[in-house]
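Sample intake sheet
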Amino acid sequence: MPYGFDTNPPEVDGVAARLVLRDNVLHRNDIEWAYIDAMAQAQTDIVIAMAYFVPGARLRRVMRAAVRRGVRVHVIVQGRYENFMQFRAARPIYKRLMASGIRVSHYQPSALHAKVAVMDGQWATVGSSNLDPLSLLLAKEANVVITDRKFAGDLHERLQLVLSQSQPVDVGLGRASSVLGLWDRVLDGLAFALMRVALWLTGNRY
């Protein structure tokens, strides 16, 4: 447990499960630390699926470290435009993640409101929290962390189906010099700046 979070709670009937909460008093970072600790211990693969994925510096560091030690990291996010701030602010982050070897895909058929992850086919989490600043710093959230090969294996199979219906994220790298590409970059930068201002106003840094 390199970050001191209990990612492997006691077993009951052969299955280990733990409820992890996020609030603004006693449990501000518990969900984030659960992800960070599990990622830090992952050895083979990490698959994350959620609507909004705008990880902060701590999460990005541990994801990049996982890639460097040979872990396959794949993030599936919603492909449909629903929220300007989260959709646009995420795109500069996607560029950085993909540059470091992390795969990012857009789910195409419909909106994606799952908030799940599987690591090494044995650790899984299902809950209400996206990995974005609004969820991790402002909203009340709840996730269940489960250490069980059958549950994690079933969830992993379902995520492979989701991946088959997803496409690699296009962040406009190939048309950065075009008018459309420039406008995309302006909107992305504006959303990212607004996200950082909102966090600064709440006393947080990003």
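Comment: Residues 1-5, 173-177 have pLDDT under 50 and may be disordered. DSSP finds six helices and nine strands in the chain.
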